[in-house]
Queue: 4 jobs
Job 1
Amino acid sequence: MPSVVITGASQGIGRAVAEAFATHDGARIALLSRTQNKLEQVASECRDHGAEAMVVPCDVTDDAAVEEAAATVRDTWGTPDIVVNNAGLFVPAALEDITAEQFREQVAVNLTSAFVVTKAFLEGMIARGSGHLFFMASVASIMAYPNGVAYGAAKHGLLGLARTVREETKEHGLRVTSLLPGATYTPSWEGVDLPEKRFMRPEDIADTVTSIYNLSDRTVVEEVILRPQLGDV
């Protein structure tokens, strides 16, 4: 069964993806984020499902920390079968209000980290001739929202990155999938005055990831858009 690396695995969609893969007998899941105590909780839940789980505290905006984490995964389980670039950050701000530092921070978390994490495992996947790279983009990758200048720019860039990775790796046997979810009920939406049922469940996004992975290697889902039944929030 697969070995999986998930960034931003301590909560929300990342946590749900970890638990979804954990239901596959023999799955090995490396959990990356900055918050070790939350990762330990996710790891415990994964193990309860019968999976192996490795907690790898890592700030994905730190290139050296990413390489150290990748080395830990490779030394333990070899090159992973799946990498889920899920780490994200959304801080709403209008163009006239956001600072350059705030803009760079959201680009670093949402976009640059996916580039660095992908690069850390890419050589091994190409040498093996297989692997599945998932990029957690957003409906903000294809449309603009007020007060989302940094997030929108980063997510547009993430989709562009994923499309390029797809073109450059398809002849090497790798599959690349971008998911573009709309509003999903995660901690990012805490405090919003809307009912929970107005949002998608993180588990629905996670089930989409595992379903796509389980297709035969003759087929790849390049991009998929997911929205709440009533549309964008």
Job 2
Amino acid sequence: MKSSEIIQFWESKYSTVEVAQSNFNLQPFLHGFLSAFSPGHSYHYVANFKNLELKFVSDTVIDFTGVSKEKVTFHDLLAVADDDQHEMIKLKEQVTYDFYFNYLSLEERKKFKVVYLYKMHDPEGRSRIILAQALPLSLDEDGNLENVLSVHTDVSYLCVQPDNSVSYFSLDGRKSYVNINTAQGKFDPDAQPSRNLLDVLTPREKEIVSLLAKGLSSKEISGQLHVSVHTVNKHRKNILAKTQCANTSELVGHCIMAGLLV
């Protein structure tokens, strides 16, 4: 599977030779939407899927691709993914198209963001695990995809590996679809686990996980939540037992994919 096949899929589903003049401006979206994405070393861009051009690319893209923001293309972004990841990425993109355009209503299409993991090697040859997040910013008058904000974050420090799942998180309180299996290349709302971390953890436990993800110690968490260190440590022990995670890094990784921290 070559990265060009993924681009050909996007071209067949989204792009058109007729690109209308757009009044789209990143500024009204930038601060509100980027605050919804995970922190960490990352790069972002806005993609016009009508002509598959990149806009508003961050300077940091060169750290991941070796190509400057002025010259980087979709081919460059996909070329850094490991060879065994391309088929997986294509399936995730196929299911994502099916979800947005065959499952969601027109009104819902800008109310969900997509999240998945993939593995890549940077220009220095270092292996990285990337958390890819994307959110539609604008649709044309027929409801077709135009501009999409994407953020790719290095989460290699977490004990989580890419698999064939993808998640769709509601931005306005609707039902989210977590860890959807993409093996069949079609969106199946029943293909998500019957139970996930959002069901297992209490509100207080979710709060503690969020603070752990920011790198806070038990002592710092106790001060912020106005509880004893003993109470925080007890919560941490219970959280690991409930989620069957070996340590905090593994816990944070699983919580990201369950939608708790994204």
Job 3
Amino acid sequence: MKDIFKAPFVEEMKKMTANMYRLGWDERNGGNISWMLDEEEVGEYLDLSQVIRTIPIGFEAKELIGKIFIVTGTGKYFKNVMDDPETNLGIFKIAADGCTAELLWGYKDGGKFTSELPAHLMSHMARLSVDPENRVVMHTHPTYTLAMNYVHELDEKKFTHSLWEMCTECIVVFPDGIGVLPWMLCGTNSIGEATAEKMKEFRLVVWGMHGIYGAGKSLDETFGLIETVEKAAQIYILTAHLPRVNTIKDSEMKELAEYFGVNYRKDFLNL
């Protein structure tokens, strides 16, 4: 077996969590990441028949039976993943009953996956139904995106449109727009179900007065989606109180989207 501590998926999780903590998006134990791994690759580092313990996941995820995930732990700080990945991360397989996680590595202090796991797994199932290459779900609390929640209507079209106006790249990076949920109690199946429903339509979902969920094919792609939203939200917050002299017109956003060949939400433009 190869050294699990040198596995690319462990290394990438270490670097990503450290960077997100550095940016101030994941204070204390805020934020969580789940990444569906390739079984063959994981098998080079772990004996997949050796289950350390089983952990109920809190709902039935039949579509994910046999899938392997690396997931941040509950109550764990992103800043500590780099120095102690085996305590702060876990790798598990969804058992044949669809209701249990079979721990293969990690959570060595007796811990378990993030309390937001239902929202993550439900989002994985929703995204896989529309994009079979989806592998990552990321939840974080980016500062300016969160600030924008308090001064902007939590309306999907209006919220997306305001962000598209902030940076030329926005309609190209997230042409499908942003789903928006009102404030809901976190860590519950209810918010997971609501998020998953939005994930059938959007790769990004704002949790009102809480943070954002992003989904993608890789850690980099998913982070890049959220990073672009955060940059646009920062520009919005820095300029919202000032008179608007210039803006990107809807006709120009349409021109951008069509030039780059992205499938954008035409109903989110005012044309």
Job 4
Amino acid sequence: MALELMYITNRPDVARLAQESGVDRIWIDMEYIGKEQRQKGLDTVKSYHTIADIKRLRPLITRAALQVRINPIHKNTSDEIENTICAGADYIMLPYFKTSDEVRYFIKEVNGRCKTMLLLETKEAVEHLDKILNLPGIDEVHIGLNDLHLAYGKNFMFELLADGTVENICRKLSGAGVKYGFGGIARLGHGYLPAEYVISEHYRLQSSLAILSRSFCNANNIKDLSMIKQDFENGIKEIRMREKEVSQYTEQEFEINRREVIKRVDKIVEEIKSNEKI
């Protein structure tokens, strides 16, 4: 079980390099409605991609899949879905939903014309998850830790991994037979919670999907394409090597890693709270 790796970009040159280096999905991110207000003050990705970006990348994306995040349900959702599918999306992602009615409407509008992914990132969606998972037409669910940790009043997004929230959601998704993933990963040895620990949790929880974060490769801050290529090639090679190692873990080794995640997350949260007091 190798993780399917996703990377957000609308740049043709970066998308091509990512695909050639083994990224499984190139992600066009059109979501903007309400995002600035929800994530105000946080250093999160706000892309403002468009339908034109889908059309520009579609001919280039031949080995990877093309995934598109639309806006939350709004008055023009039907047109947005139609235009996204016509432009060539392989996967279409619905963010920030709260009810089964929203999901039902989304699935109806897509009408089987491409794969559907739900971005689970509200408390309400978690509370209604059993009802939502009874709906036909859901191909995948990704647990969005950025917004979800804010919804639960947490200080750090991986608190939801450490406190069992992600595990409880994964159990429901697994029981429903829906493919799922969570969060993002940086380079091995980098990030607040280094990727090697997060990858182990993906395998323990039988997750299939992961986002490559800006900490993995922030292509917008790198002008030299050869450096971007090197980041992707080396970074993905390291991830695959770690996956090979983790795939042989015993239950005891997974438990040791889980406890280390909790320990490291607790330390990070303490540091965040201390800095807030200064």
